[in-house]
Design brief:
This protein has 357 residues and is α/β, with parallel strands linked by helices. Helix content is 39%, strand content 20%. It has one domain: Rossmann fold (3-Layer(aba) Sandwich).
Length: 357
């Protein structure tokens, strides 16, 4: 039976609580000490926006835990998207200072000096990626033969209802053409998990729910303080538990059910052993909602305009969509709504902890 550890925490004890969480989830048993470990943080927005990105205490606790147990070959891998500035995201979210403090090597999957993209032939039958990329599925060679620790947060997502451990592999394993897969995103996430289980010596997820993201994530959300942290070696199971806690029906996150059927993990709550907190009756009542940008996205990826996807996203026309998303999020939504939300969050206990970094 898959295990998911869940604990309540508070700013004063969060580092030690994370270490206790990892013990509960049997991290050392699941991630071999003699193999290199990749830390894969989650930057959904280069601005600091609560609930959207890996938190500094989440990252620091995991690094301290690895050091305490004698894991010596630890690095971090960053990715970029066409609308997210990776370096700015690391600075604004105070992750760069954590990496520097503990001497963690940072690498970028888009920098040829750090790694190369090589064709990989999965042993598992692919649901979508072999059709999306008939010329070959390319992954970073640096990922081969290493364990990976995903660091997502508990939040909603406009295309996948929720985003967590399974979705966190999206940026790391696929290059900037990954937007080709959006119309078959759930199949893609199953394919990526199958590939991870083939190439990594261990796959583990540590999820921060101290401030969770309600609404049209992964960016334009309402931050909600919930004080939960989660961990598991089963990406499907931790996403299943997180989905349940947010109050979403599992049917709205098809990748969880598909992954369960394929034997990639456990996607049924009654088959998961939840350790620590009792979460069966937890329901945050989250709803995804929408923004202007997400409505346009749904029309083009899943709606009546789907037939024109090749024109929209495989030709230079795509740059109009990229520019529109960039301008909407960075120069309209964030200045008009986001900054006020962030200022108010800084007054919360978690906001004050963030400012202390």
């Amino acid at each position: 039976m898959s295990k998911v550890a869940v604990l309540k925490t508070k700013p004063e004890t969060v580092i030690e609580d994370y270490k206790r969480l990892l013990e509960l989830a049997e991290f050392e048993r699941q991630v071999p000490k003699h193999k290199p470990v990749i830390l894969k943080d989650n930057i959904s927005w280069h601005f600091m926006f609560p609930g959207a990105n890996t938190t500094p205490w989440q990252l620091e606790a995991v690094i301290q835990y690895l050091s305490d147990l004698g894991y010596r070959d630890v690095s971090a891998v960053h990715n970029r998207t066409v609308v997210i500035n990776a370096a700015l995201g690391q600075r604004e979210n105070k992750l760069d200072c954590i990496y520097k403090k503990y001497g963690i090597r940072e690498r970028c999957n888009f920098d040829p000096a750090d790694m190369n993209w090589v064709v990989y032939e999965p042993k598992a039958k692919m649901l979508a990626l072999d059709k999306i990329f008939p010329e070959g599925i390319r992954i970073p060679d640096y990922f081969l033969g290493k364990s990976i620790v995903h660091l997502p947060t508990v939040k909603c997502h406009i295309y996948t209802t929720m985003t967590g451990a399974m979705k966190n592999a999206f940026g790391g394993l696929l290059n900037t053409r990954r937007h080709y897969t959006h119309s078959v995103i759930h199949e893609t996430l199953c394919d990526l998990l199958a590939i991870q289980q083939e190439i990594h010596t261990g796959v583990f997820a540590v999820m921060d729910g101290t401030t969770c993201g309600n609404g049209p994530g992964p960016r334009c959300m309402e931050p909600v303080q919930k004080d939960y942290i989660l961990a598991s070696a089963d990406s499907v199971a931790i996403d299943c538990v997180s989905t349940h806690m947010m109050g979403h029906e599992l049917e709205t996150v098809p990748c969880i059910g598909k992954a369960h059927e394929l034997g990639l993990g456990t996607g049924r709550l009654d088959e998961i052993e939840v350790l620590g907190e009792e979460v069966r009756d937890v329901d945050f009542g989250f709803e995804v909602g929408s923004t202007f940008a997400s409505k346009v996205g749904r029309l083009t990826w899943f709606g009546p305009l789907k037939r024109f996807q090749w024109l929209f996203f495989h030709t230079p026309v795509v740059y109009l969509f990229i520019l529109g998303s960039f301008l909407y999020h960075d120069y309209f939504w964030f200045p008009v709504k986001g900054r006020k939300i962030v200022r108010e969050w800084y007054e919360t206990p978690w906001g004050q902890l963030f400012e202390s970094y």
